[in-house]
Amino acid sequence: MSSDSKTQSKSIFAKPPVKITVGSDARVYYVHRGTLEVHPAFDARLKASTEEYEDAIDWSAFDEQTINCVLSFLYTGAYQAPQATSVVVEVVEEDEADEADAADAGEEAPAQDGEEEEEEEEQEVVADEEVEAEEEDADAEAPASPVAKSPSHASWPPSPPSRSPPPPESLQSQASWPNSPSPMFRVPARSPSPDAESSIAPDSPPSQGLSDCDLNDRPLTPLEYCDGVTLITEHVSGQNVPDHERQGQDQEEESEQEAEGHSAAEIYLHAKVYSFARQLDFEKLKQFALNRLAQVLVALEQTDKVLFPYLVDAIRLVYKTTGIVDDARNLLSQFVALRYTTLIGENLDELITEGGEFVVDLSHKLARKLTTFSMAFKRVEYLTHKNEELKTESAEKDKELKALRDEVRRGPAQGFPTFTYQI
Hints:
- Among the domains are: 17-61, no CATH class; 62-82 and 170-195 and 212-409, no CATH class.
- Helix content is 53%, strand content 4%.
- It has helices at 33-37, 40-49, 64-76, 85-107, 112-141, 151-155, 244-261, 265-279, 283-300, 310-321, 327-338, 340-343, 346-353, 357-409; strands at 17-22, 27-32, 56-59.
- The termini are far apart.
- Helix 8 (265-279) runs antiparallel to helix 9 and helix 10 (310-321) runs antiparallel to helix 11 (327-338).
- It has 14 helices and 3 strands.
- By secondary structure, the protein is mostly helical.
- The longest helix has 53 residues, at 357-409.
- Residues 85-92, 107-114, 140-213 and 234-242 have low confidence and may be disordered.
- Strand 1 and strand 2 (27-32) form a beta hairpin.
């Protein structure tokens, strides 16, 4: 018997590739049909939506960037956003360097007078600093005796305090960035559920507590915990690391690098891929694109990067191509509600004036946000009043304790017998 198997091969490369028409300019792509057939629902939807499915697939309604991501996912199970930001930064830096060289060459001759004045000022500052340094050294070497306190010394100003460290060159160098997930779908080190720990005291009045039944009384859910989002919580599993300080510093450094590694253009890219998967019932791609969209939004949530026009375009596309109940709709409207005060402007105003279901979703979330703010203020008032009551009660207890101590001290002088012991 031959060792070669005679069974039919199930490789995706066993069948010839099928042609795909992409974009408005009808660019031609090819894909092995086996990569489509391993996703039954996706393949069935393609057959139903394409008349000439056996000969060609018409994806002319989608641009090349979207289809490139789709094909990459079909073959590898993932796709990467194009890293165009680093190229732009390099070009800008080169242009700035060229402009600086040209400016130095052109302004070198006429700026001689100004340079002389600056040099004189610098020399004066250096001389003053040298005099102060010599006087400080002399004061440090002199013995601390009453003779040193002469009138001339008394009139001399004290040595200047040590200078504070210089401010950081950029915002990225400050340890103030939020924890954010890395490109491997890691999320910040938070509790597994935002509602796992409650800050409501057991003796709080019912009107001041957050209701477990009414969602309008609860804060907006963080982006990484929104419905449908399944980011891998690698940081959460490492919360019990003994060296908390080192872990916090590492997370802050990672969050800064990850925030810089994402661009606003990725928001629109993942929205386009999600829309494609949603329309053609490609469930795995839809979940992957939703996670990537959430990852980018979490990373950009606390940055000062300009998100327009990509954010507005993503919202328009998702709300145009999805149903009323959709995870991407909820995620995008949640992001805008959480960052509404920083996003408000001409671009967002234009989107709001268009009306539609996005404005309805956003208004509900903003109303919920305002409700939680109002409850928070009431909660602060209640806790402040409770604190004052406890202070008053504590003061009364202190008085009682002091009176009892005084009574104990005066006990023998008020007629109590005095015992003497003789050995």
